[in-house]
Design goal:
By secondary structure, the chain is α/β, with parallel strands linked by helices. The protein is 33% helix and 16% strand. The chain is globular and about 55 Å long. Keywords: Hydrolase.
Length: 177
């Protein structure tokens, strides 16, 4: 029997981009944003200086040094037993991120085959049974079942099934077997 497929986003789902972006943004702007202070804000509201954001996201080693989300490695490995996993990241907007994301995945998720890594611009063409992402702009076009991973910018969104951490992801998807 063919395994069901899952598309998993990187930034904000596998990799903790919030913490690092806040640190870099505060350093560049002399601000004191925190995870708590940006809860419920859209990205553009939380990080008003978009030029600084673009500069940070285009900086060497930003994506390569992101911390892994708690329980992500073990959870993806467990899900891989019953699902075909694809890592899908909208990476082409920040070209420096392409090689860094591949290297990051190789270090933290070496069990994901290279052909299951999709670095793209738009996720509208992704056709998997499930998509785990933190952005509604990607989940709204999901051809399968969208699963929203909680992030500061989606905390007030309610139109997709929400998971707050990787243990919840595993529980939700194991229920589908």
């Amino acid at each position: 029997m063919k395994k069901k497929t899952i598309a998993i986003d990187m930034d904000g789902v596998l990799a903790d981009i919030e913490h690092q972006l806040i640190q870099h943004y505060n350093k560049a702007n002399g601000t004191n944003l925190s995870k708590e202070s940006i809860q419920g804000l859209e990205e553009e509201e939380a990080f008003v200086d978009r030029a600084v954001v673009r500069s940070v996201l285009n900086a060497d080693n930003f994506f390569r040094s992101l911390p892994v989300m708690p329980d992500a490695v073990e959870s993806v490995r467990e899900l891989q037993e019953n699902f075909e996993i694809f890592i899908v990241s909208a990476a082409t907007e920040f070209p420096v991120s392409l090689a860094e994301k591949v290297a990051w995945l190789g270090e933290h998720f070496p069990f994901i085959k290279w052909e299951n890594i999709i670095l793209c611009g738009s996720k509208r063409i992704i056709n998997t049974d499930y998509m785990i992402d933190d952005h509604c702009k990607n989940l709204d076009y999901c051809m399968g079942k969208p699963i929203m991973f909680t992030a500061f910018h989606n905390i007030n969104k309610t139109h997709h099934l929400r998971v707050n951490n990787w243990k919840e992801v595993v529980a939700v998807l194991n229920e589908t077997l």
